[in-house]
Amino acid sequence: MNFLSLFVLIPLLMLPALWLSKGQKAIRTVMVVGSSLLLALAALTTILFLKERAAGADAQMLFTASVDWFTSLHIKYSVGVDGISVAMLLLSAVIVFTGAFVSWDMNKEYFLWFTLLSIGVFGFFITVDMFAMFMFYEIALIPMYLLIGVWGTGPKEYAAMKLTLMLMGGSAFLMCGIFGIFFGAGGETMNIMEIANHTGGAHAIPLAQQYVWFPLTFVGFGVLGALFPFHTWSPDGHASAPTAVSMLHAGVLMKLGGYGCFRIAMYLMPEASHELGWIFLVLTGISVVYGAFSACVQTDLKYINAYSSVSHCGLVLFGLLMMDQVAVTGAVLQMLSHGLTTALFFALIGMIYGRTHTRDIREMNGLMRIMPFLAVCYVVAGLANLGLPGFSGFVAEMTIFVGSFSNADTFHRVLTIAACTSIVITAVYILRLVGKILYGVCKNPEHLKLSDANPIERFAVICLIAAIAALGMAPGWVSDMINGGVSPIVNHILAAVA
Question: What gap in Å lies between CA 204 and CA 269, rounded to an integer?
């Protein structure tokens, strides 16, 4: 068995272990051990991958393996990773690990669905077969309905229904797109690499068909990536979701959208992505600016962060559609950065809400004196989200903007300048928020009795801050690893339209 399958096998083994667990201590033990193993496996995969590359392994995908699954339909369980996949696996493992500690007091059923969600996420990033990717994509979406609808807060039933219906709508588009790609390429293989390289019976997809399947596939994945105007599920879903679910949802699940757009839609249909990419580039530009402006007028902590996620995920798709190697590398770095930063934000919001029982910033003042640890960490999260040098956000956003500016035509330059304004708008809502809830005099006497973060919560928060700072201060190795995965795909897209 290929060791990459352990990313799916470990959570699968956690499910019966959780089911058989009696008492909260046993449940916590299973989650901590399982998530620690996943984190260790992700770290080991990263080390092995870098060693292979250093030793001269130049194959696009490493650690590949393939097993026939449904032979008559040419469906295989095919795994393999490149620099992009390895980075996403590492991000997912960090957030699942910290999410286990943030959800310390949740019950067995919650952790069962949370673990099932993680299976879908990890499976999506290790597979190179379109059908298997789609299957894992669906596995990741299904638990969201129950996790929000049962354990959420506020209008949770409405939020869960809205999220599920919109994402299933995206799945319908996606399914049409995937089958269109499959038959357009000859109907002989579902393997992404074989379709891209015209091996295994695959041939180039006719341009007329690309014009149909590219928009369907891009929109299908774009819905999950909060592409304007299909983003409306995201703020409501985030606002009602439990803390760890928000962390995994915003931190990892939304990255499936950008990853799928790049890996399937753009890679397999390069001509259409070049011809039609400008339409989606305009929409992503709107996402970036609209999300930032919307965050400025919100009063709910989770809604502020949710609209911030719309803006930053828009920036991911924006960088990808620039079709420049530097910009695309920046987009993947932005996936990592936003994943860690937004997970930290949602973790802190959950901890503050658990104590104050409100997320309305108008009812919060003077939290710096009452819970200094949470307050300082919130400031750090805000500065990281702002893109301050020394944090991951600065590296990611600067790389996107530098790469985007290398497109010398007026259209791309104007859109890049418009996207750059989002930094200023982000500063407005972050600084407003920090000033509002942390400083001043506490108006609610009940808040004066509140306690600061406990050791378990502190551990989860420190892990996330350490990851954000590490990525910001030493981004070179991550950037080089990602660049190695980006380069063949971008060159393939550019070669097709040369």
Answer: 9
What percentage of the chain reaches a pLDDT higher than 90?
Answer: 6
Per-residue b or e along 338-370, where b marks 16 or more CB atoms closer than 10 Å to that residue's CB: bbbbbbbbbbbbbbbeebbeebebeebbbbbeb
Rounded to whole angstroms, how far apart are CA atoms 427 and 386? Answer: 6
Over residues 171-214, the pLDDT tens digits come to: 889 899 999 998 888 878 888 888 888 887 778 888 888 888 99
Residue 200 falls in which region: left (phi positive, over 0), alpha (psi -120 to 50) or beta: left
DSSP state of 357: S
Residue 229: asked if its preceding bond is cis (omega within 30°), the reply is: yes
pLDDT for 409: 81
Enter the DSSP assignment of 22: -
3-state secondary structure 295-337: HHCCCEHHHHHHHHHHHHHHHHHHHHHCCCHHHHHHHHHHHHH
pLDDT score recorded for residue 1: 59
> Tokens standing for 306?
């949710």
Measured in whole angstroms, how far is the alpha carbon of residue 104 from the centre of its chain? Answer: 23
First to last CA, the chain: 41
Residues in Cβ contact with 248 at an 8 Å cutoff, skipping those fewer than 6 apart: 95, 96, 99, 114, 117, 118, 121, 343
**Rounded to whole angstroms, how far apart are CA atoms 228 and 322?**
17
Which pLDDT tens digit goes with each residue over 406-446?
Answer: 877 888 888 888 888 888 888 887 888 787 777 767 777 77
Helices (DSSP H) in 322-454: which residue ranges?
325-356, 367-370, 372-386, 392-405, 410-438
230 Cβ contact partners less than 8 Å away, ≥ 6 residues apart: 166, 170, 219, 222, 223
Kindly report the number of other CB atoms within 10 A of residue 13's CB atom.
15
Place of tokens 């949470």: 374
Give the mean model confidence (pLDDT) for residues 152-169.
Answer: 82
Q: How many CB atoms lie within 10 A of CB 414?
A: 11
What is the Cα–Cα distance from 310 to 203, expressed in whole angstroms?
36
Beta-carbon count within 10 A of 43 CB: 14
> C-alpha angle with apex 304: 231 to 322, nearest 5 degrees?
50
Task: Tell me if 84 sits within 8 A of 91, measured CB to CB.
Answer: no
- Model pTM score: 0.90
Rounded CA separation 442/309 (Å)? 29
CA angle 377, 379, 385 (to 5 degrees): 105
Give the number of other CB atoms < 10 A from CB of residue 211.
Answer: 14
Q: What is the mean pLDDT of the chain?
A: 85
pLDDT bin (cut points 50, 70, 90) of residue 37 is very high
